[in-house]
Amino acid sequence: MGKNVTSDDGHGRFGSALSGLAVAVGCVLFLGGFVWGAIEYQPYTVPTDSMSPTVAAGDRVLAQRIAGADVRRGDVVVFEDPAWGDLPIVKRVVGVGGDTVACCDSGGRLTINGKPVEEPYLRSAGPASLTTFSAAVPDGQLFLLGDERGSSQDSRVHLQDPGHGSVPRGAVSARLDAVAWPPGALVERPRSFAALPGGVSRPGPVKLVAGSVVAGAVLILGGAAYGPVARGLSRKRVRPGARAGADA
Question: Does the pTM of the predicted model rise above 0.70?
C-alpha cells in the first residue's frame, strides 16, 4: 500500500499549509497597509474648484501628514490660518521665505526671484494671473496660489496683510499625494520648480500603501479560494467507484 498524500478534505497537506500561509501573510499586508495609511495620511474633501483642474470640488484626496519645514515649492498643501477664515484650505505653494513672487513677465508667466516658471497644471493657456502683483515672502512664510487663477481666493487677495499674502509654515498640516475618489492620478511635483533652491519634495508612500493593501487582498482571496478549487478538481479526477488515495 502506498502512503496517502491527501488530507481528509480532498486536497494536499502542502497545498493546505501554503494556502493558510498566503491568507496569514495577506492579512498582515492588508491590515498593515490600512494602519500605515491611517498613520501617514489624512483624507480630505476638497471644498471648492480653486485648485481645478488638479483637484475639483468634492474630490476625496489623500494628504500626507507633514511638518511645515518639509514644504517645498510646487507642493499642494492643506493649511489653516485665521486671516483666511481659520478653515482647512487647499492651495499650491509657489514661494517660500526669501522669495519675490511676481506676475506676469512678457510671456504671461509667474516669476520667482525674476525667473519665469512654467505651470502646466493651470486650466488655461492665458496669463498666470489676471491681476499683476509682486510680493516679498518673509522668512518662515509661504506664498500660495490656486491652480484656477481666475477665481481662486489666495495670497493675491491678502497682499495688504502684514505677511504680504503669505502664511506661516506652521499653518500647514498636510500635503496632497493623490485623489482617492473619484479614482485619479497622483498629484505630481512640478518639474519647473526642481531647478530652484531647495528643489521639490519627494512623493509620499501612497503607492507602497496601496500596493500593500492590494497584495494583501489578492493573497487572502487566493488562499481562501484554494480549498474549494482543489476539492472541485479532485472530484473531477476521481472515477465513479474508485477509492481516492488507495493504490491499484
Answer: yes
